[in-house]
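Quick question, first post here. What does this chain look like in 3D?
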Amino acid sequence: MSALKPAAPKKLYEGDYLFMKSYVCPVCENRLRIPTVKAGKARIISQDWDLRPVHKDIDVQKYDVVHCNKCGFAILKRYFGVLPKPHKELILEKISKKYDPHPEPVGMVRSYEEALTEYKLALLCAAIRQVHDSEVGLLTLKIAWLYRAQKLALGDDTESFTKAVRLKYDGFLDAEEKYLKKAMDYLLKARQTEEPPIAGMNETAIDFLLASLCGHFGKFDDAARLVSGILQSKQSSPSQKDRARDMLDAFRDKRDNV
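> Answer (accepted):
Ran it through. Tokens below.
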């Protein structure tokens, strides 16, 4: 009798990584069910130069906003909680009066367009509430990541793009750069006025991110200063220092070729 072949591993789809989590809107007390990534389920397979995590089979960034479909309030899950009364009143006055309530979306999987709508509403709510620069910086960084994901989904063989696809690619790229620049500006201000952890990042992580963004936008002196701080910090691990040195070498090459 031949041995039984082991069963092939089950292929997972985006919805397999999600469950519906219950929230109560802190503005209007509407009960919400928000698609949420299961803890420990999504596996990171790589990380971009600006710390964007890339997961297998799912883009977890699409599921990081709590959005009330009744009053329009939206906020990153990291910052979800009780709102001060003045903030509630501002949201009701500036957002809810103009917001068109609608049923909760059917199903759990969100498109990039749906995710971006929620993120930009969260960004508007953050501006109305006059939150810390770090919260705005994190929102704009994640919006940039969503545009990058859409851009990458089109492929990297840009020479073979049709005119229509090329226009979409360029649009995603322009939006990514726009929001990366905003993220850099807000997080640089946060680094000067707030104490780590900043947007959930310790001193080494926020300085590495800022050095990456500064180097990307040609602010090489700022990038070098931030990397120097990482190299001198006792909190930085040997691997973090090695990665910071590699980044600094890449910036020097980029500066020399400008």
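The chain is about 50% helix and 10% strand.
The first strand starts at residue 18 and ends at 24.
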